[in-house]
Every structure is written in structure tokens, then in C-alpha cells.
């Protein structure tokens, strides 16, 4: 299976707390909810199309526990994501979580890179990382991410946890699709392409 990251970020790279002020107040973060004002039909349609490609969800422990708490409580039959989010196989990377409560769940123990590498070797379409920025960043640095999908909000937050924080590794990305929504979101899809190239500027 391919590993695909789907992430919401601000223009300054913050991925923490996109959905509400209370979503993630870790380290005193107080500026959550920055993504919600920019939701529109174009984004919802694209996000639904992305989710259609998933054979499973890959999550870190903290994101998993938040999703397991919230998604089963959504009962709106017209919600475009609930049935799939609740029904897809979930894989949670954790050495502290005893078992999953959001069925069907498999807990991946041991070294995260090895565990996800074994998952990636299985047949299938793609397993998607939603949220779980620390896990996503580590897997990108380890060369295990095949596709990176970003929804970039037109906002500069100035504090909070950044999405891509792996200074020891560089990654080349090839842009394969891009779109701007009416509300100003940039929807960017990349494929990973090895190490980032470098060159010396020699003038025009």
C-alpha cells in the first residue's frame, strides 16, 4: 500500500489545532480553529475524493484517541465522511496503547518505521495519515511517505507545532495537482521524489 499524508497547515507551517480552540492546547497553544473559517464546498469535495482512495487510516496515539472519541458521536446521515472514517481499518502507532476502542483497530507496536514499513509492503491502494503530524514528519523523513496532500489555509498563526520538523533529512517533492478554493485554501498534492536537489545559481 502507498502511504499518503493529508494535512491542514497555515501559511507559516502550523498544523496544530485546525478544528477548534479546544482541539489541541498542548504547550499552551491558544490559536486553534484557524482552518474552519475557510471550509467550502470545493474543499469538502476534494477531501471526500481523497478519502475514497483509502484502504485504511494510519494515526499516532494522540490523534487516534481524539478521533476515537469524536467520530463515533457524529450521527448526521448527510455527513460526507463519517461512515467511511468509522468503517475503515485503523492502524495506530503506539507502544503505550493497550488496545483500540474505535473498531476496527490494529495497534502497531515496536519501532514506528519498521512497523509502518511492514504495513506499506502489504497489497492495497493507500493508507492515509490524517493529523498525527509528528508521526507523519518522522515517516516522511524515513522515506516511507509516497504522497503528501496539503490544504494550506490563508493564515499566519505565529505559534504552535509545525508540520515538517525533521532537520536531519531533506525530501524532494513533485507537484502533481493544485487547486485554489473560493475561500482561499490551496489544495496541493505532491509525490515524494527522493532527496531534495541542489544547485549553484550561475546567472541567467
Structure characterization notes:
With 204 residues, the chain is α/β, with parallel strands linked by helices. Helices cover 23% and strands 25% of the residues. It has five helices and eight strands. An eight-stranded mixed beta sheet has the order 4-3-2-5-1-6-8-7. The longest helix has 12 residues, at 41-52. The model has no long low-confidence stretch (mean pLDDT 93).
Q: In a nutshell, what does this entry contain?
A:
This protein has 204 residues and is of the alpha/beta class. The protein has helices at 41-52, 61-70, 82-87, 112-120, 133-141; strands spanning 2-10, 54-60, 90-93, 105-108, 126-130, 147-153, 173-180, 186-192. It has one domain (36-192): Dihydrofolate Reductase, subunit A.
Q: Would you identify the CATH H-level superfamily?
A: Dihydrofolate Reductase, subunit A
Supply Rg. Answer: 17 Å
Give the strand order of the largest sheet, numbering strands 1, 2, ... along the chain.
4-3-2-5-1-6-8-7
Major beta-sheet overview: 8 strands, mixed
Kindly state the percentage of residues in helix.
10-25%
Q: What is the H/E string?
A: EHEHHEEHEHEEE
Key terms:
single chain; 204 residues; alpha/beta; Dihydrofolate Reductase, subunit A; 8-stranded mixed β-sheet; 23% helix
Amino acid at each position: 500500500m502507498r502511504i499518503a499524508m493529508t494535512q491542514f497547515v497555515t501559511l507559516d507551517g502550523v498544523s496544530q489545532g485546525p478544528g477548534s480552540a479546544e482541539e489541541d492546547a498542548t504547550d499552551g497553544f491558544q490559536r486553534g480553529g484557524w482552518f474552519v473559517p475557510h471550509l467550502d464546498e470545493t474543499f469538502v469535495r476534494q477531501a471526500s475524493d481523497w478519502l475514497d482512495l483509502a484502504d485504511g487510516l494510519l494515526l499516532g496515539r494522540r490523534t487516534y484517541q481524539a478521533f476515537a472519541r469524536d467520530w463515533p458521536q457524529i450521527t448526521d446521515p448527510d455527513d460526507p465522511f463519517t461512515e467511511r472514517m468509522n468503517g475503515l481499518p485503523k492502524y495506530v502507532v503506539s507502544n503505550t496503547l493497550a488496545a483500540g476502542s474505535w473498531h476496527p483497530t490494529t495497534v502497531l507496536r515496536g519501532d514506528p518505521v519498521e512497523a509502518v514499513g511492514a504495513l506499506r509492503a502489504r497489497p492495497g491502494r493507500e493508507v492515509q495519515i490524517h493529523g498525527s503530524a509528528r508521526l507523519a514528519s518522522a515517516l516522511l523523513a524515513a522515506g516511507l511517505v509516497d504522497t503528501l496532500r496539503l490544504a494550506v489555509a490563508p493564515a499566519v498563526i505565529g505559534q504552535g507545532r509545525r508540520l515538517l520538523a525533521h532537520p536531519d533529512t531533506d525530501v524532494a517533492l513533485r507537484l502533481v495537482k493544485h487547486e485554489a478554493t473560493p475561500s482561499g485554501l490551496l489544495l496541493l498534492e505532491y509525490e515524494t521524489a527522493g532527496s531534495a536537489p541542489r544547485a549553484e545559481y550561475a546567472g541567467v
